[in-house]
Amino acid sequence: MLEPLYHLVLLDDDQHTYAYVIEMLGKIFGYGREKSYALARIVDTAGQVVVETADHDQVTLDQGKIHGYGADPRIPTSKGSMSAIVEAADGS
What we know:
Blueprint: E1 5-11, H1 18-29, H2 33-46, E2 48-55, H3 56-67, E3 83-88
Antiparallel strand pairs: 1-2, 1-3
Helix pairs in contact: 1-2
């Protein structure tokens, strides 16, 4: 039986720049600048974006990497990392 899949959903905020999001997605997921920029645009305009779909252990591990990435040094008032939530990929 196949293990269920989960989405890792990055949530928008006003404490992080596009450059931060692009850099973070590249370092955590290995995404290129073009894909990272496209995802940054979606999170900025839609408020959230799926950055990964995988088994629960993988998305939980990567969620921890997002939460541990730290504040955006480009914004003096940035207090910490971005937030991401885990959702079942089947919509339930």
